[in-house]
Amino acid sequence: MIRIDVLPDDVLLAIFDFCVGSPWYEGKARVEEWKSLVHVCRRWRTLVLGSPRRLNLRLYCTPKTPVRDTLDVWPALPLIIAGSIDLTLGRDNIFAALGQSNRVCQVILWRLAGWHIEEFLAAMQVPFPELTHLELFSDGETLPAIPDSFLDGSAPRLRIFILNGIPFPGLPKLHLSSTHLVQLWLTYIPHSGYFSPEAIVTLLSTLSSLESLQIGFQSPQSRPDWETRRPPPPKPKPFNFVIPALNFFGFRGVIEYLEDLVTRIDTPQLDGMDITFFNQIDFDTPRLAQFINRTLKLTKRNAHVQFNDYFARVRFSPGSKALEMKILCREPDWQLSSIEQVCNSSLHPLSTVDDLYIEHRYRQLVWKDDAVENTLWLQLLLPFTAVKNLYLDKEFAPGIAAALQELVGDRIIEVLPSLQNIFVKGLEPSGSFQEIIGQFVAARQLSNHPIAISVWDSHTKPM
């Protein structure tokens, strides 16, 4: 057995490095695990405190941390500041830590109210040379806008910048302070913080290291003014701004904004998109369709069409490229109409999909089947020309069967021409679905395109 006290310093440091390695989640206990090592013996204390960069030693300050006392005990290590500052005591501790501006490396604050923002901005009027990570979340109220001068040259090492519910009209000038951003998330943006597609593209064109981008507005009020000007024609591809490192793009807003934005950019490394639209009448998105087709290059995969109490969505998995599109809408008939338009406009063609799932996540399903919905079901299924396996929740099965029943004669393979199997969750030996689907199955058999009807259970095929 080897005695640990005879191990050389470099071996001990390798062990310490493993013990305090940086995890994905960095809470206070995990960040400050190194403190347990310095209490073992004088040698370990000297070794740990003498290797702050190698061991990534940091102090984690929360609203409950007695900051002034804590900073007097330990060496001048980098500071992480995180927590809610809705309490007076917590506010004092947070702002005491912010006063150590030359040591602050991360700031993550939530439940910010208007008066918090004003104090915070006052504290940020000095350089923060070590700041790499900044996240600010509002408490839900409308906050005053962050002025254009925010971070004006004061955070040259900033890599992660996240604002939630906080207006920042001066965003296009962010590159003056932080040219090395890797992650830029601007979510739940109030209309007072609106910025145009042109402005965000101008910023993106300067961020050559950006890997993850999210833009999300609070309401459909934030849209380009297409009523007073004609939308610009698509720019020739060679003149689009290239965002070379971007691998994820998320958006929440109106179609007009996204159409305008994607016309101006190219993202050769994009691996995933997560798009949420507010409910609209028209979901025609030719520019987005062009952007997806030239960028994501969808490979064979599963497609999931899902409905719940708040939205309808279509998502694709698995594969190296991921795509999800969502429409915020509560009415089932509007949900079906919207998702049908998206599949036929933004995502067409869908000839790489083998398995199609149509599912619901309603707390209480209220869905009526009629002639209008039959047409919409057929329109939804139309672009899935390569689907071999169709998986249905039993609540949707009768309505979809009724829609397929309308395909007669030469139209029998007009929809889902490659279909081989229909799997229904909770399928019963007899019932409305079996009665309705029988004629369609028989017609497909006569056309030499037979279909088998089976139960969809946990052993049928992985989700």
What's this, in brief?
The protein is an alpha/beta fold and 463 residues long. The protein has helices at 9-19, 28-31, 34-38, 42-49, 67-73, 88-98, 114-123, 197-204, 255-262, 286-295, 332-345, 371-381, 397-405, 432-446, and strands at residues 59-61, 79-84, 104-112, 133-138, 160-164, 183-189, 212-217, 241-242, 248-253, 265-266, 272-278, 301-307, 311-317, 322-328, 353-360, 389-392, 421-425, 452-456.
Q: What Rg do the Cα atoms give? A: 28 Å
The neighbouring-strand order within the major sheet is 1-2-3-4-5-6-7-9-11-14-13-12-15-16-17-18
User: Uncertain spans, ≥5 residues at pLDDT below 50?
Assistant: none
Secondary structure: helix percent: 25-40%
**What would you call the shape?**
elongated
Mean pLDDT: 85
Structural class: alpha/beta
Question: First CA to last CA: what distance?
Answer: 49 Å
Task: Give the tally of β-strands.
Answer: 18
SS element count, helices: 14
Biggest pleated-sheet summary: 16 strands, mixed
Percent range for β-strand residues: 15-25%
Would you give an account of this structure?
The protein has 463 residues and is α/β, with parallel strands linked by helices. The chain has a domain at 1-57. Helices cover 28% and strands 22% of the residues. The protein is built from 14 helices and 18 strands. α12 links the parallel β15 (353-360) and β16. The two termini are 49 Å apart. The mean pLDDT is 85.
